[in-house]
Amino acid sequence: MPKDAFVIEKNQFSSWLKKLQESFQLIGPVEKEGHFVFSLIEEVNDLVMDYDTTMLGPRKFIFLPEEKICTIYQKDQGFTIKKVQDVPGQLLIGVHSCDLHAILVLDKVFLLKSFQDHNYRLRRENTLIMALNCTKVCPTCFCSSMGTGPFVELDKGFDFLLTDCGESYLIESFSEKAKDLLLPLNLPQADDSLFKKKEQLFQELKGRFIKNLDTTNLVQTLLENQDHPVWQRTAEERCLGCTNCTMVCPTCFCFNVKDKISFDLKECDRVRYWDSCQELHFAEVHGANYRSSRKARLRQFVTHKLATWVEQFGCFGCIGCGRCMYWCPTHIDLTEMAKEVQKSNFKRMREDGYA
Amino acid sequence: MNRKKRIRLGVFKYTCCAGCEFQLIFFQKKILEIFENLEIIYFRMGESGGGEEGPFDLVLIDGAITEAWQADQLKKVRQAAKFLLPIGSCAVNGGIPAIKNSTSELEMEKRVYQQIQPLHSMKAHPVDDYVKVDGYIKGCPMGEKDLVEAVTSLLLGKRANFINYSVCVECKLKGNLCLLIADKLPCMGPVTNAGCGALCPSYGRACYACWGPMEDANSRALAWQFEKMGLEPDDIFRKFTQYASNKLEFRKGAQLYGSTT
Amino acid sequence: MVMPDTLAFKTARIVDIFQETAEIRSYFLSLEEEEDFQFTPGQFNMLGLPGVEEAAISFSSLAQPGNNFFMHTIACVGNVTSLIERMEIDGKLLIRGPFGYGWPTEEIVGKDILLVAGGVGLAPLRPFLLYCLEKRNQINNLYLVYGARTPEEMVFQKDLMDWQKKEEISTIYCVDKLPEYSSLLPNVGLVTHFLEDLQIDLSRALVCMCGPEIMMRFVARKLLLQGYSEKDLYLAMERRMRCGTGHCGHCQIGAKFVCQDGPIFQYPDIKPFADTML
Description:
By secondary structure, chain A is an alpha+beta fold. Chain A folds into two domains: 4-64 and 75-206, no CATH class; 218-351, no CATH class. Chain A has helices spanning 10-20, 97-110, 118-125, 143-146, 176-182, 192-206, 218-224, 229-237, 244-248, 294-313, 323-326, 334-343, 346-351; strands at residues 4-9, 25-32, 35-40, 66-75, 78-83, 90-95, 127-132, 160-165, 168-173, 255-261, 267-274, 284-285, 288-289. The radius of gyration of chain A is 22 Å and the shape is globular. Chain B is an alpha/beta fold. Chain B has helices at residues 19-30, 32-36, 68-80, 88-93, 105-112, 144-156, 167-174, 179-182, 199-202, 219-228, 233-241, 248-254; strands spanning 7-13, 38-43, 56-62, 65-67, 81-87, 121-125. Chain C is α/β, with parallel strands linked by helices. Chain C folds into two domains: 10-99, Translation factors (Elongation Factor Tu (Ef-tu), domain 3), CATH 2.40.30.10; 105-270, 3-Layer(aba) Sandwich (Rossmann fold), CATH 3.40.50.80. Chain C has helices spanning 79-85, 122-134, 157-165, 213-225, 258-261, 267-270; strands spanning 10-19, 24-31, 44-48, 54-58, 69-75, 92-99, 112-118, 142-148, 170-175, 187-188, 205-210, 233-236, 252-253, 256-257, 264-266. Chain C is globular. Chains in contact: A-B, A-C, B-C. At the A-C interface, strand 4, strand 5, strand 10, strand 11 and strand 12 of A face strand 13 of C.
């Protein structure tokens, strides 16, 4: 059910954002060299709300590509540790449904297990999310198959939801903070006809998906076929091991830690940066590398996103944004690999006596 | 941990442009602390004199090996050195001098010199083809991050963790748009070792692999992709032989489009 | 509910150092700020020093109630461990922990327990063994099969000799090469050769193993062939870890995070996934 739904004219929306700029860092999609990127907004007019997709999702403003975890000072009597304390409040504008789901997936990883990640919690608590229902379907996205789009159907975990209705937005608020921010605007309530229009847009958009993935029994099928030939073939012929897929994936959470120590060895910045399971040294321990072949690493990526993630976090790790295949230099398509496994389920065929 | 002992440094230069040594001198301005911790024993570009015999805590080798005396000296230096690191693409991968490796030696000499009798040149090889090395400071010229890592590791007494992922990682961490996809440029980033901070891609130029191959790079797949993008075989061959024609990772890509002999 | 933060650093002081073998030392540590430090057998700490990040190291001692002492037995092979190797008594380490899910201490009642260890793999098993000895009257038979390359490479030699004499535990020690002299009088051969003829009732067996993954592979296979059931086998897995708290992703084996779901696993939990040697 709609909680608090209002209509806001697009001009008014812009001037409202300008006002919000005084208390928040605004982050949203802007144009850069013919593509769109999420970036810090200086001028509200730079915002492009009808963007298709971005290379990096808004995760880079919550789980930073490279950030300091803490500084360790070595003293004679021991150590002093300075953690990251202050982060600015930020408002993510125009977050598509898939990216919103991705942030919620990261919440599960960093906040809802037995330990809370210090840096992520700080930034997440200081982030407001203004989601935006999609108006177009990208050729590589398949969010409708993963149940993560194209419209936001959640009722918590974010703050605002926008739906483009031509001259105006339908704006719904889903948190107390959001309600408080909308209150001074005295906006007119949205009526039923607007919701009917929203539903109509949704149905229309759903029919336009080019790419899809059947997720029935997918987990089991992939786990049963960890030795399927598709991994070896793709790894040999196409996978470069360049890590682009995992870098652009909005749900990838792996990081590596590096110490940057001063030359007097007294002060040490502990830094973390996005790491990737596609990297050769990712699973290396002393004397062994448990994923030394590109095949094993590629399989890890696909089976993690589409299978083992479900056991870990109760949802798919893939939110169907299609970034991994679009930004892969050789356009390796994870849905195609999954489909190939589904089509030729060797484990089943062996059991049935066909292979 | 207060180590007053300074690191005894030797720098030896073989076949190269000496850019890496300039880089080392340039660091002195930038990171004076590095040199405070070093005692220069042999460094022709920085200081005259000095003994070749050592002993050294750290030896940096600049340049590819293209003559017999170089290999002889290198082996002696190795025995006098606790740690030996090749610096820069020539010493690590063969670098620019190794471009000649895909042509016969005689043909190459004739093309460049009128008198070839006094020449004693052989095929260019990286340092680790002759002696055991303790790591690689890659780059053209060598990278600052890796040099800092090498020095702090020596001071701490730990093994250096040099950067060993692809340029794509640095590009993405910086938030650059991918040139291969967005601009259809033949970028070597996916197979090239990082450390430069994605310098060229950040200015809209395709990576040309000056740091040499990343470990386990799949050059063949990238070469096929370049072919699909419409590159001529010669161009693809040159891309993979320009900086590291010796390295197996790049030879796999080059061999599809020309003879690497 | 407030969940624990990932950056809960503690300072530990080296109280004593004991040289186990040429490459392996035991460090007795005590926490600086906390009076009471509790952990279960099989859990681990992230040990760190500025400049070398952190490494996951299992406890090799049993926690004492109301006490803040603990022991780590470390093979000096990596960056963290070789830096620790050069530290002296009163040196300070940064630790985070305890992390992970330990040995099945609740399962031991009425069981025939077989402990199989290889090399430094005895270190994570030692607290569990001590725990079993403490609760000896609750368990039926207790075996330790311990293998190392040479007698010199065996850790906890004093303990090994003690255990050899004890009636509460039956021990089999084995080495790859025949030694000229050894007070332990080990057998020659791989641990897998000494898993037969044990007084173990398969219906109440509990096997805990820790060692190189390739050793655990063959021990597990041998035991399964002998009729042990898969769920009675517990293994200690080792993976690269950067956080210990289930965030960095490095230690994943299929759906399992070794740092949080392990490092001790029941064989059927880990078997379905690729990228192990099992």
